[in-house]
Amino acid sequence: MQNQADTRIERIRGLLPEIAQISDESLRSTVETIWERMWAESGWGDIADIPKNPSAPGAPQRVPDAWTLVTHTRAVAQLALTSAETVKTLHGIPYDHDALLAIALLHDVSKIVEYEGTREKIQKGHVGRLIQHGVYGAFMMWQHGLPTELVHGVIAHTPSSRGVPQTHEALIVRYVDFLDTDSMLLDAGEELYLK
Fold this sequence. Notes:
The protein has 195 residues and is mostly helical. It has one domain (4-188): Hypothetical protein af1432. The protein contains nine helices and two strands; from the N terminus they run αααααββαααα. Strands 1-2 form a two-stranded antiparallel ribbon. A hairpin with a 4-residue loop joins strand 1 (115-117) and strand 2 (122-124). Helix 1 (4-15) crosses helix 2 (25-41), helix 3 (69-91) runs antiparallel to helix 4 and helix 8 (148-155) packs parallel to helix 9 (168-188). The chain is globular. The relative contact order is 0.15.
């Protein structure tokens, strides 16, 4: 019989198939564990129900599961890989595939505990009001022994940190996160992050 953690990890694997593209088994397992631990600490019954942000419930839902945290995370992972490959092919700038994927997949993991509510109504919870976005996810990464460069990538993905990306992987995740987010905001007629 499976325990709850194993059941949650199976669900995470199903919702985030990009995790399987991380070739380093230890890193792949750590990414899954961090998602599972955040989920276990939250009040969410299913991470598939977590909206991307408080404006998500009122936004256009052009496809199933649009504007969810899981869909946004998948989009950032896929955009990051495509962007990195383009930059590598056309400019010769290398990147670390596993590091890029880990940062992309963990960049918003702390939203699981930062937000509370339902799919129809979400708001910042206690953690979200008191802890800067991304910090708790970065803490969990450090706690699980991930390299400083990966932790930096999660911290630097948001302008709230005031940190500027110092690796190609962190830079790519920051820009593609804005691309995906601003695409949704523009579609919803909301103010863009890009100013």
